[in-house]
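S1.2 Input.
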Amino acid sequence: MKNDRDTIPYWLGTTEDTDYPTLMEDIEVDAAIVGGGLSGITTAYLLKNEGLKVAVIEADRIAKATTGHTTAKITSQHDLIYDKTIKRFGKEMAQQYADANQNAIRFMEDTINSNNIECHFEVQSAYVFTQDKNYVEKIENEAKAAKSLGIPSELVLTTPLPFPVLTAIKFDGQAQFHPRKYVLALAKQIPGNGSHIFEGTRAADIEEGKICVIKTVDGKRIKAPYVIIASHYPFYDGKGMYFTRMYPERSYLLAFRIEESPPEGMFINLETPGMTLRNHPHEGERILIFGGESHKTAHGEKTTTHYDNLRNLVKQIYTVKEELYHWSAQDYHTLDDIPYVGKLTSETP
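S1.3 Output.
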């Protein structure tokens, strides 16, 4: 039996709504952050801890968009990223990517522990697997690349999944969590002593300079020497031509109660359309979060078709007792799979 819960993400359906104020007057701070997701709130949390006065502005509600629609895995395993990064950019770039992601896992674990955040953080192994012989060599090459970068990983022929695989790469020491519970806990530490979170406050433009000015759609102004854009898509391009260097991709997720015990670990496959699955604690039991059917935005079938395909697939693997939620996510990808971090352009002050 389905109800209204199945039209929103699990992460939103199991947390309270936020109610931070809207910006009603011009303000000046040390650092302004546009975007109230995991990246923006974490940045604000860190800067405030360093003694800066910060302001986060979010067009909707914090931790609701990308953060609220994720699979909620904390991992340095992003498909098969390392072998191709070494071949395309060299080992130094691949090492930077690996170190940044491995350090992020430890940072989040330390932050959760030091702040006593209840967000179902659990250390898990992450797997990329295949049942198609055409992908076996790719996984073997990725395993060699990961080992060369010092990532705790190994090539395996079996997994905790209830079906056989030809091969898989396993990353140890990865993690999963409840992203909204994590972000909302950090957010509570930001307001006060000259720092703010504003919801329902959409940025429209930036005047660059030694003191930058963020203009909102309602005509309010935020002055700050430092501005961080942590929004889903850079609302301000600043001659960076990012619209030509990124593309959106949509994927679909469902949360199920199943008769069997969901597998320990986090899993994605290489076949098309892809499959992703993990477990999560819910009301005294373990539920299955199952997704896939990724496609470039506007290039897929009817939304209901993608959900139905996933429902049919999960029923081939498990005995479904109840579908709790379903939702979709839209993520932006760079053309070379390396994220954009740092100055907006080489000319940005």
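S1.4 Remarks. Residues 55 and 196 are 5 Å apart (CA to CA).
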